[in-house]
C-alpha cells in the first residue's frame, strides 16, 4: 500500500500539513488487528455482509465500507461473490521545513495581523485587515478546528467523520493537532473581538469544519469521501456556494475520493487541494490535488523583502508532458500561493508559523471565497477560470518549464486579489 500525506509542519512525531499519509501506515504492521475495507458485489451478498460485519459508509454502486479484524478479513477474501479492497490509512508525513517547531514556537500574539502570505495575495504590503467572502461556505476537511478567538463567529458547521465508533458525529470537530485550525485561519480568520488578531483572506466567509483526520493526523479515504459528499449535499440543501479545501493528499489515486470529487463538482462545488510536498522532481503531485476536477495548489516562498517569490523546493511538481498547454488535466499543478513560513491560528488559542503546500491551499480557497461573494451568479467552473486568469508568473522565480505559464512548478502562477 502506498503511503499518503498532509502538507505542512510537524508536532513531535506528527507532521502538520505535509502530506496526508503515514510513515508506517497503520494496518501494514505485524501487530495490526483491524482493516478498513470496501466491499463490492451483488446486492444480496452485500446485504449479508452488512449484517455480518456492520457498515460504516454506504457508497451505493461503489459498495460499502466497514472495519474488520484480521480473521474477518481473511474470511471476506475467501468469499467468491464479493470484491474486497483494503482502504489506505492516511497519516501525516515528513516536515518540509526542518526549522519549524510547531507547538514550541507558538506565540501568544501574532507577529503581524496580516501575515506575509495575506499581504502577498492582496498585493498590499501595508494592509491592516482584510474583508470579503460574505455568504460563501468553506468546508475545510482536516484535523478539525478549535473555537479560536480569531475564528469565533465564523464556525457554522462542525462535524466529525473520523471516529470509529460512529460514522458521523454532529457538533464535534475538536482539533488536538493544530493543522486544521491553522489552515482555517488563513482562509477566514476575522481578527478577533478586539481586531488585534490575525486576518485571513476572506474573513466574512463561514467555516464548515469537517474533521476527517484524528489528532495524530491519521484518517481513511472513505471518511474523506463521505465528507466531500456531505459538503456537496449540504450546499444543495441550503442553496449555498460551497468551496471544499483539502490540505492533504496521497501518492496514489483512490476511487472513493475520486468519485466523491466528481460528485461534488457536478453539484457546483469548487474543490481546492494541496499539490503535495514531494518536490522538486516532475510528476510528484499528489491526489486528490492531481484530479482533473480539483484546483491543485503549489507552495511559494518569499525570497527577498522586495516581494520576489519562487516555488519552494519541497512543493510537488506536475506532469512535464502537459506543461505549457494551458489546459488542466490530471496530474497538473493549477496555481500557486504562499506556503513557506506562514503564520496563522493555532489549536492552543495562540499563533504558529509552519510550512507546506497545506499552507498554500487555504490562500487560494480564501481568494475563491472572496471572488465568489462578489460574483454570486458565477458557476464553480467560471470561478475556477477566474482564478486561472488572475494567476501571474512574472513575479515567480524557479518555474521548471520554459513555458511562460502553466508550468509544472507554479501552474498558471499566483492568483491575487488585485
UniProtKB/TrEMBL annotation:
Q: Determine the domain of life of the protein's source.
A: Bacteria
Pfam families in the record, alphabetically? Peptidase_S8
Q: Which cofactor does it need?
A: Ca(2+)
Q: Which CDD domains match?
A: Peptidases_S8_Subtilisin_subset
Q: Key word Calcium present in the record?
A: yes
InterPro entries on file? Peptidase_S8/S53_dom, Peptidase_S8/S53_dom_sf, Peptidase_S8_Asp-AS, Peptidase_S8_His-AS, Peptidase_S8_Ser-AS, Peptidase_S8_subtilisin-like, Peptidase_S8_subtilisin-rel, Subtilisin_Carlsberg-like
The protein's UniProt keywords, in alphabetical order, are: Calcium, Hydrolase, Metal-binding, Protease, Secreted, Serine protease, Signal
Q: Which residues form the Peptidase S8/S53 domain?
A: 133-394
Q: Does the keyword NAD apply?
A: no
Q: Which residues form the active site?
A: 142, 179, 358
Signal peptide segment: 1-24
**Could you tell me where this protein is found in the cell?**
Secreted
Family (UniProt) = Belongs to the peptidase S8 family.
Protein name, per record: Peptidase S8
Organism encoding this protein: Neobacillus kokaensis
Its taxonomic path starts at: Bacteria, Bacillati, Bacillota, Bacilli, Bacillales
Amino acid at each position: 500500500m502506498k503511503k499518503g500525506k498532509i502538507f505542512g509542519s510537524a508536532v513531535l512525531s506528527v507532521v502538520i500539513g505535509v502530506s496526508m499519509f503515514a510513515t508506517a501506515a497503520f494496518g501494514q504492521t505485524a501487530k495490526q488487528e483491524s482493516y478498513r475495507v470496501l466491499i463490492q458485489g451483488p446486492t444480496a451478498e452485500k446485504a449479508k455482509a452488512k449484517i455480518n460485519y456492520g457498515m460504516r459508509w454506504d457508497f451505493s454502486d461503489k459498495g460499502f465500507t466497514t472495519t474488520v479484524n484480521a480473521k474477518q478479513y481473511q474470511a471476506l477474501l475467501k468469499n467468491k461473490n464479493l470484491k474486497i479492497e483494503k482502504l489506505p490509512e492516511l497519516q501525516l508525513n515528513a516536515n518540509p521545513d526542518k526549522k519549524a517547531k510547531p507547538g514550541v514556537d507558538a506565540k501568544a500574539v501574532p507577529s503581524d495581523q496580516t501575515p506575509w502570505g495575506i499581504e502577498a495575495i492582496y498585493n498590499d504590503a501595508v494592509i491592516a485587515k482584510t474583508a470579503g467572502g460574505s455568504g460563501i461556505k468553506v468546508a475545510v476537511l482536516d484535523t478539525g478546528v478549535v473555537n479560536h478567538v480569531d475564528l469565533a463567529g465564523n464556525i457554522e458547521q462542525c462535524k466529525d467523520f473520523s471516529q470509529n465508533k460512529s460514522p458521523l458525529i454532529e457538533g464535534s470537530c475538536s482539533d488536538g493537532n493544530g493543522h486544521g485550525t491553522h489552515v482555517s485561519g488563513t482562509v477566514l480568520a476575522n481578527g478577533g473581538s478586539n481586531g488585534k488578531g490575525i486576518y485571513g483572506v476572506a474573513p466574512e466567509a463561514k467555516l464548515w469544519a469537517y474533521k476527517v483526520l484524528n489528532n495524530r493526523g491519521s484518517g481513511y479515504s472513505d471518511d474523506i469521501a463521505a465528507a466531500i459528499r456531505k459538503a456537496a449535499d449540504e450546499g444543495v440543501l441550503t442553496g449555498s456556494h460551497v468551496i471544499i479545501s483539502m490540505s492533504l493528499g496521497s501518492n496514489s489515486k483512490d476511487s472513493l475520493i475520486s468519485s466523491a470529487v466528481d460528485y461534488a463538482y457536478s453539484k457546483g462545488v469548487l474543490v481546492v487541494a494541496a499539490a503535495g510536498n514531494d518536490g522538486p522532481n516532475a510528476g510528484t503531485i499528489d491526489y486528490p490535488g492531481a484530479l482533473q476536477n480539483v484546483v491543485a495548489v503549489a507552495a511559494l516562498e518569499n525570497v527577498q523583502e522586495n516581494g520576489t517569490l519562487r516555488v519552494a523546493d519541497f512543493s510537488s511538481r506536475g506532469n512535464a508532458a502537459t506543461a505549457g498547454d494551458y489546459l488542466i488535466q490530471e496530474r497538473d499543478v493549477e496555481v500557486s500561493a504562499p506556503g513557506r513560513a506562514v503564520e496563522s491560528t493555532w489549536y492552543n488559542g495562540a499563533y504558529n508559523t509552519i510550512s507546506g503546500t497545506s499552507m498554500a491551499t487555504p490562500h487560494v480557497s480564501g481568494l475563491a471565497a472572496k471572488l465568489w461573494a462578489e460574483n454570486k451568479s458565477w458557476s464553480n467552473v467560471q470561478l475556477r477560470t477566474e482564478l486561472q486568469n488572475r494567476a501571474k508568473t512574472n513575479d515567480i522565480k524557479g518555474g521548471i518549464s520554459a513555458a511562460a505559464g502553466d508550468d509544472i512548478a507554479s501552474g498558471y502562477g499566483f492568483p491575487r486579489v488585485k
